[in-house]
Design goal:
CATH class of the largest domain: Mainly Alpha
Bound molecules: zinc ion
Pathway: Protein modification; protein sumoylation
Family: Belongs to the ubiquitin-activating E1 family.
Structural class: alpha/beta
Strand order of the largest sheet: 3-2-1-4-5-6-7-8
Strand content: 5-15%
GO molecular function: ATP binding; metal ion binding; SUMO activating enzyme activity
Number of domains: 4
Number of strands: 14
Keywords: ATP-binding, Metal-binding, Nucleotide-binding, Ubl conjugation pathway, Zinc
CATH architecture of the largest domain: Orthogonal Bundle
Helix content: 25-40%
GO biological process, one term: protein sumoylation
Largest sheet: 8 strands, mixed
CATH topology of the largest domain: Arc Repressor Mutant, subunit A
Number of helices: 19
Length: 674
């Protein structure tokens, strides 16, 4: 027997549970684990103990002090080291028969191309951002490698096994994107604490301490989006006045720092608000704000507006806790946050969770402006940006947001709450990560056994009666713009191969088994860029490199008649022994054979009448080439051949596809942008 001594006892439990067949395979199984954070650390431990033999662990991050409460492979001495490297080292000790290869890098780097993914038997995602998860999803579909996707948010978590053509992919169900707010809500008319927090974090802090950039771009954009022009004009004036304030903060100066804070205060909490108030129209249907008064707040004579939300402390002149006004500028921040001057219960006296009075917020504002200004003046930092773990910026955002809330009659928030909201923090819970990591391994076993009927989407949910729900996996969404495509890889030298050679090569001559679909009308994209279409061939003689189509990227070859699946062609590199005398590319064998698509309802309409003036026409309306025009008897119409992926691309570009008057479209088919 070749079993190393000790290993039979070590693996006897796994053998009993997994059965001889799977447990014998695991030591040869190659697994890619993407992410060595909360889920990743737990999962690495699990797969090392389960007996996976070859593990590649990839993460681009370094260890932060705040990780240590749940990422148990790291210790304090590891802070600032690579997560992948440290996790691999720690976990290697759990099982001497396992080889872990750590990579400190970004999974989106070009060398991690389709060929690279193909070397794995299975991929496990333990990622925390949408973009990387979508990327790995696509790469696994392209490489034909099964994936287990996962995520946690507080007490909630989910595990999703993904295997091409058998299960929904990560993109089959659209994901909601992070919430954004209109510029005017943030800048002029906040109505919720979060609006004031976003303002303090993303607008005021960068304006005062960020890089000196022109905020005009954002306002130009807002104007284009049709936001109130008068409001925008006022905001532009505000932006100009900021220059003087920035200068005051940077003056090496005889000016005492308290004066600088006062100048900032007078501008943003008084004159800017007064300017806004002068626009009577704005306040017809909403409660107008109250300009704040620095000295009156310090003297305790300022009467704030009553907050229009429950539990507000806006009525408190000197704060909810009745603290006496502090001597100007003398309040130590620590003392402030500790609530040393107030009689508070032990729970409320927790530094970060205490409700700050108006005067507390003013003093915290002064203190944090001074500290930030001193950092800039010291010359060590040119610009300061928000970091929830940087106390100075968190104090500044807390105080500024609360002062603004007071002006607008919005309830204020504790430093703790601001930290959560500004940092978009959903508390990470070690237990949830542990449960999810266990479930990932179970789904991975089903995938490795190819017991596709056993696959489940599993959710950890906040329901005591059913904390775990396991749902049979669904089939792919027919209109998914990712997994319904036909994936292939071409190995090539992008500096030598032309776009035309690639397209002709991939389409093949269409005769016999594996000879492609033959020449047909196609449009070619890289991401959202159109590189060619049947009536525009300017790029066909250009090399891929000159078109910036390089290793790791995809060419999307879209059938113009909308009948065949889109070909997603990944760009890989030639093997080192490829002779320069041979063509600078190796086509996939067999060539892609995209299937005929299930026709969406949209395409079954009979010939439409000419478009009416109120309808938007085809996105490429202006340059619809004559050939296309004649096909449609000169009538401009939305090309019926838009495939779901082409449609998706156009929609992502903000282009709207509305079919013609008699087309009975459901609302779901139309994206309207006002
Ligand atoms: Zn899909």
């Amino acid at each position: 027997m070749t079993t190393p001594p000790g290993s039979s006892r070590r693996s006897s439990h796994a053998e009993a549970i997994l059965g001889p067949e799977l447990s014998a395979r695991l030591p040869q199984t190659k697994v890619l684990l993407v992410g060595a954070g909360g889920i990743g650390c737990e999962l690495l431990k699990n797969i090392v103990l389960a007996g996976f033999g070859h593990i590649t662990l990839l993460d681009l991050d370094t260890i932060d002090l705040s990780n240590l409460n749940r990422q148990f492979l790291f210790r304090k001495k590891d802070v600032k080291q690579s997560k992948a490297l440290v996790a691999a080292k720690t976990a290697s000790a759990f099982n001497p028969n396992v080889r872990i290869t750590p990579i400190h890098g970004n999974i989106k780097e070009p060398q991690f191309d389709i060929s690279w993914f193909k070397q794995y038997d299975i991929v496990l995602n333990a990622l925390d951002n949408l973009e990387a998860r979508r990327h790995v999803n696509k790469m696994c579909l392209a490489a034909g490698v099964p994936l287990v996707e996962s995520g946690t948010a507080g007490y909630l978590g989910q595990v999703q096994p993904i295997v091409k053509d058998r299960a929904e992919c990560f993109d089959c169900v659209p994901k909601s994107t992070p919430k954004t707010f209109p510029v005017c809500t943030i800048r002029s008319t906040p109505s919720q604490p979060i609006h004031c927090i976003v303002w303090a974090k993303s607008y005021l802090l960068p304006q005062l301490f960020g890089e000196d950039e022109d905020a005009g771009g954002e306002l130009d954009e807002a104007e284009k989006q049709g936001e109130n022009a008068q409001e925008i004009a006022t905001l532009r004036k505000e932006a100009v006045a900021f220059k003087a304030v920035r200068a005051a903060l940077r003056a090496p100066a005889e000016m005492t720092s308290s004066d600088a804070a006062k100048i900032v205060f007078a501008k943003v909490f008084r004159s800017d608000i007064e300017n806004l108030l002068s626009m009577a129209d704005m306040w017809r249907s909403r409660e107008p704000p109250t300009p704040l008064d620095f000295d009156a707040i310090r003297n305790g004579t300022f009467v704030a507006k009553k907050s229009h939300q429950p539990n507000g402390n806006g009525t408190a002149v000197n704060g909810a806790n009745g603290a006496a006004p502090k001597a100007p500028g003398s309040a130590a921040t620590e003392q402030l946050l500790n609530g040393a001057s107030s009689r508070t219960t032990s729970a409320a006296s927790l530094k970060d969770q205490r409700t700050l009075s108006l005067v507390d917020n003013l003093e915290l504002f002064v203190a944090s402006v001074n500290r930030l200004a001193a950092r800039i003046r010291s010359g060590k930092e040119e610009a300061i940006s928000f970091d929830k773990d940087d106390d100075d910026t968190l104090d500044f955002v807390t105080a500024s947001a609360n002062l603004r809330s007071t002006a607008y009659g919005i309830i204020t928030k504790s430093r703790w709450e601001v930290k959560e909201m500004a940092g978009n923090i959903i508390p990470a819970i070690a237990t949830t990560n542990a449960i999810i990591s266990g479930l990932i391994v179970l789904q991975a076993f089903h995938l490795l056994r190819k017991s596709y009927n056993s696959l489940r989407n599993v959710h950890v949910q906040f329901r005591p009666s059913m904390p775990l729900s396991a749902i049979k996996i669904s089939l792919p969404n027919d209109s998914c713009g990712v997994c319904r495509d036909n994936f292939a890889e071409i190995l090539c030298d992008p500096a030598r191969v032309t776009l035309g050679e690639v397209i002709d090569g991939i389409l093949g001559d269409g005769e016999g088994e594996g000879a492609g679909t033959g020449k047909r009308d196609v449009s070619v994209y890289e991401d959202k860029r159109v590189l060619s279409d049947p009536d525009w061939d300017d790029n066909l003689d250009r090399t891929l490199e000159s078109l910036n189509v390089t290793r790791g990227k995809f060419l999307s070859i879209v059938d113009d008649d909308g009948e065949l699946e889109t070909i997603q062609l990944g760009i890989g590199i030639l093997p080192p022994n490829h002779s320069v005398d041979e063509p600078p590319y190796i086509l996939p064998t067999p060539l892609p054979q995209p299937k005929r698509k299930v026709k969406p309802r949209l395409l079954e309409k009979t010939p439409p009448p000419p478009p009416t003036g109120t309808k938007r026409s085809a996105p490429d309306d202006d340059d619809v080439p004559s050939a296309k025009r004649s096909k449609n008897n000169g009538v401009l119409q939305v090309d019926k051949s838009f495939s779901p992926s082409k449609r998706r691309k156009l929609e992502e570009d903000g282009l709207i596809m509305i079919d013609l008057a008699d087309s009975n479209l459901d609302d779901a088919d139309i994206i309207v942008i006002d």
